[in-house]
From TrEMBL:
Domain of life: Bacteria
Domain 4Fe-4S ferredoxin-type span(s) in chain numbering: 191-220, 233-261
Protein name: 4Fe-4S dicluster domain-containing protein
InterPro entries, alphabetized: 4Fe4S_Fe-S-bd, 4Fe4S_Fe_S_CS, EFR1-like, Flavoprotein-like_sf
Keywords, in A-Z order: Iron, Iron-sulfur, Metal-binding
Molecular functions per Gene Ontology: iron-sulfur cluster binding; metal ion binding
Record bears the keyword Coiled coil: no
Pfam family, any one: Fer4_9
SUPFAM superfamilies for the chain: 4Fe-4S ferredoxins, Flavoproteins
Length: 273
């Protein structure tokens, strides 16, 4: 069973390709799983978590699901596949620690380098088209390699390996995960700066793609002399935000902004998911 969370489609693409290679079922990590249950199929002995890296750590939304979801009592081996633009820091170690608190057994951990999509701070932007295509081309080979490793592990004794995780940790991994990540979660993930501009055409794509259904299309509260303008519904962001940035990247008019940080930034959606 493959459990996946994705905003712009990178992790979804990885999950779907792994499912095809391994013959595994797919299950999106939906909001109800934060306090719900999920019963693996009788033949499932493996759970593969697929998700992006958030500032060198796990997405808080995914951590909340790991903390609370009920997966039943059957013994399962858990593997991890991370998507990241550059490096992961100690995200795999964070995942193993979260699993250990549940008494779950962790197996293998991998990372796949994918096109960047974080744009909400100065100095961060999407990759060039050439670099993004290079990463996507390399990713397909990497995913097949990961699938073979997981298949070989399942065909073996089932004992957890002592070998290092197959992830790109990068430099200063401890500082990135132990210091920068907590700051990022506390201070840089608020949905309050999200807004729309005059370019908004009320298409509703931002609301439709939101994995937590945190965006509602509502009529503007301000006064307008244009009756058609008053009838147009605009996006309103709630507080239950996973900060996946899908709303920003999917907008066909580049009308979704995050404060004043994204006006000249690019957009990216995985073309294969």
């Amino acid at each position: 069973m493959i459990l996946w969370f994705s905003g712009t489609g990178n992790s979804r693409y990885v999950a779907e390709m792994l499912a095809a290679e391994l013959g595994q079922s797919l299950r999106r990590l939906t909001p109800d799983l934060r306090n719900g249950s999920l019963t693996p199929a009788p033949h499932d002995d493996t759970v593969i978590w697929v998700c992006p890296v958030y500032s060198w750590g796990l997405p808080p939304y995914v951590r909340a699901i790991i903390k609370n979801v009920d997966l039943g009592s059957a013994p399962l081996i858990h593997h991890l596949v991370l998507t990241c633009g550059d490096d992961c820091g100690l995200t795999a170690e964070m995942w193993r620690s979260d699993l250990a608190k549940r008494g779950w057994l962790s197996g293998l951990a991998f990372s796949v380098t994918m096109p960047n999509n974080y744009v909400c701070m100065s100095g961060f932007d999407v990759d060039t088209a050439e670099l993004a295509q290079h990463k996507l081309s390399a990713a397909s080979l990497r995913i097949r390699e990961i699938a073979r490793s997981i298949a070989d592990f399942r065909a073996g004794s089932g004992d957890c390996p002592n070998e290092p995780d197959d992830v790109v940790r990068g430099r200063f991994a401890w500082i990135k995960t132990r210091i920068i990540y907590p700051w990022f979660v506390r201070h840089a993930m608020s949905p309050k700066p999200f807004r729309y501009t005059r370019e908004c055409i009320s298409c509703g794509k931002c609301a439709a793609i939101c994995p937590l259904r945190n965006i509602n299309m509502s009529e503007p509260s301000g006064k307008s002399t244009d009756s058609s303008e008053r009838r147009r519904k605009r996006p309103v962001w709630g507080t239950d935000c996973a900060f996946c940035l899908a709303c920003y990247h999917v907008c066909p008019r580049h009308a979704v902004m995050y404060g004043d940080k994204t006006g000249t930034k690019g957009q990216y959606m995985n073309p294969q998911s």
